[in-house]
Amino acid sequence: MTDEAEGRIQPPSHLPWLFVAAILTGSFLLFLVQPMLARMALPKLGGAPAVWNSAMLVYQALLLGGYAYAHWLGRVPPRMQATIHLCVLAVAAFWLPIGLMQMELPADAEPAIWVPWLFGASIGPLFFAISAQAPLLQRWYSVASGGRDPYALYAASNIGSFGGLIAYPLLVEPGLALQGQSWLWSAGYVVVMLLIAGCATMLPRKTAGTPHVAHVSEAPARRRVLHWVVLAFVPSGLMLATTTFLTTDIVAVPMLWVLPLGLYLLSFSVAFSDSPQIPALLAKFVPVTILLFGATMIAGHQKLAYMNALIGLLLLFLVSVSCHARMYQLRPAPDRLTGFYLAMSVGGVLGGVFSGLLAPILFDWTYEYPLLILAAGALVPQVFLLPAIGRLWAGDAQLQRIKFLAACLLIVLIVWIGIANPGGLLGEMHEQIAFLMVAAIGLFAVGKRAPYLAALAGALFLFGGYRSIDLSLADARTRSYFGVYTVTDYPDERTLAHGTTLHGIQLKGGKSRQPTTYYVAGSGVGQAMLALPELYGPAARVGVVGLGTGTLACYARTGQQWHFYEIDPAVVSIARDSGRFTFVPQCLPRAPIVIGDARLRLAEAQPGGMDLLALDAFSSDAVPMHLLTREAFATYAHALAPKGLLLVHISNRFMALAPIVSAAARDGGWQAARLSYEPDLEFVAEPTRDGKTAVKQQESTDLGSASEWIALTRDRATLARLVARGGGWRGLKIYPGFTPWTDDYGSVLPVMRALHPSLQDD
Predict the structure, then answer these.
(1) The predicted structure's pLDDT at residue 2
(2) Concatenated DSSP letters for 542-576?
(3) Do residues 82 and 146 make contact, with C-beta atoms less than 8 angstroms apart?
(4) Nearest 10 degrees: CA dihedral of 265, 271, 275, 280?
(5) Please, what sign has the CA dihedral across residues 628, 634, 638, 644?
(6) Quick one: pLDDT band at residue 422, thresholds 50, 70, 90?
């Protein structure tokens, strides 16, 4: 309605709630689709952290496109904006119901390129259309309400985004199969269209003869726009870097990848509030947190894995709130709103490109994490912790330079003493003591940017940074799309770690052919390999999913046919070509190694072409969900002979996978037995009088690791013969209430040890 006396439009009382509902619903859908599509992609792409990072890059790029489109629409009158946007939403609806394109990943495809293309082609138009609604509706609200400040609606937008992201693993995934999830999202899309149409009816009609004016306030300076971009760059890059760092060097807990994005989104809701206390509190608290916890994270200790993960997430949240709050302080007038969000989106995309694309190419470790911690220290607002500290740094420019140089020299000296510990000056805890000394200098420097950064850099270098540089200079690390691999030399052995998980040990000298770790003779797979001649004769056909260091190759015997399946070419290079590990060159130099996703390659294999298939394709401790579904087990049955044997490695620090394999075994008609190997005892194969071999128990003399293996076969007699050889096999128990994972439905919540104490020892 209008107030004729004043000629102003009076907004309806329900106006704010209509816009809030539209923004919340749209943002909820926007971020519900992200984990949903990643789940749909599991059977094709697997569960490596880099897959999630690639998905995030696509989402950020599409968000940038949506914001740029919303900014461009500002050139036309509001009613015409609404007409154009509703048409865009209608065209994008042709991509409903939402889902992943039906095409296979080529064996020689580059995942860093192919994965983003697949995601973009599958949901690009829908995501683009929905992503534009937040800045558009905020501008429409300002117009429809007579010029009210719309920025608070952005906080509502991010609450909706956070809700969609968290609702997926907690409610949607456990409750609905993928097809149901797709239809739910599609119905939500229709609701958003209706809400946006309702908001469009609130827009004032242009008065005849009055030209449309896009902007009335002064345009921001280029320096200010660049400042917005940088302030958005650091939290976005740190969000992806935190995801990679936590899952690579701290703990590879499933669903952990969702939490950094959720906290990143939640930071906008806190930062884009009008509370005057928030900036003052952040200026003191955040620099201290970065100084103390940033260096602690770089140390990469796994003894308190969950605690370190919480520290990393807290650090990300506080840095994001601080940077975004500073952006909010520097925001322009409402008529420049879309340009502000466009600059924010540009910074977000650049941060994602740096952490998701450039860093894996430029660095052999997650160096992007400490670099972004340093950048955060350079950007977050700071004030002196106490007035007396401010007086300590007072003085003219010349005196301040002298104080800065003195602080830098002192930091360098302490770092050197902390690393070298000359004469045992600081005792066994030399690094920790030196870190506390550097941190103390940093605390006195909070509020003075340059010396604070010097202290932060010294702490990062001292508490783990120099070790990482040493490993890089020694060419001990390899980084690929699927993770970071570290080769470490010791006097008697060489090890390979994928993130924090040990993936193989090779002894030096005359024991270089001896299987170790999860693959010793007493392990489930070791016993199965030793039983091959008895079960399948001298020409047994063997397949191994997951190459690792190639340890299993040394079980091969003359006449047997072996095939390895490995998704990461970097692992093939380490195991076969680099000379660092010699299991494959010594024992199976001509073994075929099929590069690509094993599930897809096995589906193409000759039916019944294997007698034994060993499944050991873990990405650090991440759950290979797409390799444990009903459809995956059907693929293994296709590749195995009727009496063939499937060995599944289920060792995992955070997930109890036995219930899932047990449910799949019941569902698929498999006979199953389980073997839990402990390294304090070993089972040794000894010949018997009839020419066969028996497994006997004795004190362990090898480098075995505790391991859990499950043997499955469709032939009851084959399993009975394996179990009869001894070694500790026991029947795989039934877990009531568990159903098989499928490509269409599966949730990790029921098998997380932290959530289910009854599964701690399973």
Answers:
(1) 43
(2) EEEE--TT-GGGGG--TT-EEEEEES-HHHHIIII
(3) no
(4) 140
(5) positive
(6) confident
CA 732, distance to chain mean position in Å, is 32
d(CA 156, CA 320): 17
Confidence of residue 472 (pLDDT cuts 50, 70, 90): confident
CB atoms within 10 A of CB 665: 21
**What is the model's pLDDT at position 762?**
67
Give the span between the Cα atoms of 496 and 153, in whole angstroms.
50
Q: What is the distance between the alpha carbons of residues 634 and 714, in angstroms, rounded to a whole number?
A: 11
How far is residue 148 CA from its own chain's centroid? 39
> What are the residue ranges of helices labelled H in 93-221?
111-131, 133-144, 152-167, 173-175, 178-200
* Distance (Å, whole) CA 305 – CA 621: 13
CB under 8 Å to 212, separation ≥6 — which residues?
Answer: 76, 77, 206
Residue 414's alpha-carbon distances to 374, 434, 448, 459, 511, in angstroms, are: 19, 6, 20, 10, 44
Give the E-state strand segments of 581-639 in sequence order: 593-595, 610-615
- CB proximity list for 538: less than 8 A, separation 6 or greater: 557, 558, 559, 560
Could you give the CA distance from residue 374 to residue 64 in angstroms, rounded to a whole number? 26
pLDDT-above-70 percentage for the chain = 85
Residue 745 half-sphere exposure, CB side, CA atoms within 13 Å? 13
Q: Tell me how many helices (H) and strands (E) the chain has.
A: 28, 16
Length of the chain: 762
Nearest-5° angle of CA 630, CA 632, CA 636?
Answer: 115
Please check whether residue 283 is in contact with residue 451, taking contact to mean a CB–CB distance below 8 angstroms.
no
- Asked if 294 and 459 touch (Cβ cutoff 8 Å), the reply is yes
Here the tokens at position 318 are: 């506080």
Q: Residue 455 to residues 39, 182, 330, 377: CA-CA distances in angstroms?
A: 42, 50, 28, 10
Q: Which 3 state secondary structure label does DSSP give 607? A: coil
Return the structure tokens found at 711. 């043997």
Tens-place pLDDT, residues 211-220? 444 556 788 8
User: Measuring CA to CA, which residue among 651, 655, 620, 614 is closest to residue 741?
Assistant: 655
pLDDT in tens, 244-285: 776 665 555 545 667 888 888 888 878 877 777 777 788 889
Q: Residues 30, 164: contact at Cβ < 8 Å?
A: yes
Return the closest-CA partner of residue 623 out of 595, 568, 596, 661. Answer: 661
Quick one: CA torsion of 498, 501, 502, 503, rounded to 10 degrees? -50
Terminal alpha carbon distance of the chain: 67
Q: How far apart are CA 604 and CA 578, in angstroms?
A: 29
298-343 confidence digits (pLDDT tens): 665 556 666 777 888 899 999 999 999 999 889 887 777 778 888 9
User: Among positive and negative, which fits the CA dihedral 496, 498, 502, 504?
Assistant: negative
CB-hemisphere CA count at 13 Å for 608? 4
User: How many angstroms separate the CA atoms of 393 and 388, rounded?
Assistant: 9
| Mean pLDDT, residues 472-480 taken together | 82
